[in-house]
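Database export, one record per block. Field names are fixed; values are copied verbatim from the stored entry.
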Amino acid sequence: MRFSIISVSRFPDVTENFKLHNFQLQRYLGGVMIEGGSDTTSSFLQSLILLLTAYPEVQRKGYEEIDRVIGDQRVPAIDDVPDLPYIQAIVKETHRMRPVAPLAIPHANREAETYKGHVIPEGSTIFVNTWGIYHDPDVYEDPETFNPDRYMHNEHGTKANVDTSNFNRADIAFGSGRRICPGMHLANNSLLLNTMNLIWAFTFGHAVDSRTGQPIPVDLFSYHKGILTAPKAFQCKITCRSLRHAQIIEKEFREAIPTFERFEGNLSAEDEAWLKATRQ
């Protein structure tokens, strides 16, 4: 039998305490991989749309870069990323402004550690205060402002006088240490693709109150609490940027159908009816 990182023989407590076998552990791992990449991505994109709605000037700069590099004859692709530094900066700044996991995932130290004169006993629960780090006014200029330009000046987005020699990555949104997100590179590509396509295709503006005719403001601090956070429901107006953009979206949608049809077995009658109606 080939060595497997998901063999229960490597985790005897799993077998003894939870009565799990290899095939069960493998199924749980598959579920965790989907869950770990779906709710985090969804939370990030909700924050992205909220922030783009609140900061139209960021959208404008994103449009200028997207239109210059890609135009309106095709959708963005992952190969475009190196030519889109401002779009990369928007992704980094969204992570910084509203990290999906503001306290990351708890760690524990196997032995006592001393940090800056403070003794951390063995077995202590240690949280990485991602939110606090990303909103430290000593590190970031005006940290409560959504400003992707900070990452255009240096890769860490920090003030000019901040020592970044100990920064091993441009962001800490994916955790740190040995418990860092194992899918961070895949996730980052997914977020870049989503961000590129959303900004290429749509404008995000304030919804208008039907009674007063005034824009409905969005609350940047109205968030669900938990290990993972996401904005509470908010109103905004999403508009396709042009008829040409809409035509390309429709074309891409039609061409993607055969790819998704392979995974549509055992659907409920309700889901089948929805798919049929959507694809007419």
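Remark 1: Residues 89 and 152 are 7 Å apart (CA to CA).
Remark 2: The chain has a mean pLDDT of 89.
End of record.
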